[in-house]
Amino acid sequence: MGATIYLHWTATHYDWVRSGHYHSIINGDGRVHRLHAYSVDLPAHTWGRNNNSVALSCACMGGQPDPWSQPPTVAQLQGLCAETAAIARSWGWQAEDITIQTVMTHAEAASNRDGRILHDNYGPMIWGGTGERWDLLQLEANGSSDGGDQLRQRIKNLLNKQASPEPDPDESVIEQKTPLQFQRTSSMRARGEALPVVIDTEGRSWALAADLLVRYGIAFSWDSNLRRVLIGSLDVVPSFREDGVQSDVGWPLFEMTLQSHQAPVILRGILRPSADESDGHHRAWCRVLEFAEEFGISVVFSPFSLGERRGG
pTM for this one? Predict the structure, then answer.
């Protein structure tokens, strides 16, 4: 099969985040938790369809006894569509490439609605299935049963950068935000030596990922095609931070992952032009405090400085 993006819900509360199930999970507030690199296969998100695919899931529908007491939120659906559009764009897809063969809800996949008969029909009963999976068949309680079509149209709109003349609050056309700005360069201490940093308008320190990794003797390699820093350390357990860098930061993103078969994501950062912008190269920057917390590095404030690495 060609590459496919599958859209799910977790049947949990809005703040549920666990690795191993989906590549990314979108919480109730719309924040995307990138858990695994999109270039690796995960084993158990969409039965019979886990190869050459990406799974995105909204943390919702965990209400008891009525799942609809925790429905997908507007922010979640916006985040789901924006992340799908970002993946599609990174793969070189255009709006016309968003079809039921390339982007499917789990409800549609379970019922083989793409025409590829890969397994028994365990989808919605209205499509002749057993009713075991009906993710995103509807986007709201008592809504129409065309959730997949609605989501694909929103994703197409994002790829086309089309804005509705009168924006619908339920429409996933997200206003383009001004990219995060940086106000000055500075330096801080890391392991007793000066470390160059830049300070953003919110007062946070950013450093070159390579500088931090070299400073702490952490083995890594850079995959420019996937915009990924591969980490060889064995003592890091990603925390999947609530305040992880999101796509609305306005800069191209890179990810730092462990070198394992499921490539769990440690953190995400941004790509900024090198000092010589004429060469067209970009450098990978990450938030210093996030890097320290993920890699078990001691931190001191006033002034902000980094000590030794005391464990992942």
Answer: 0.77
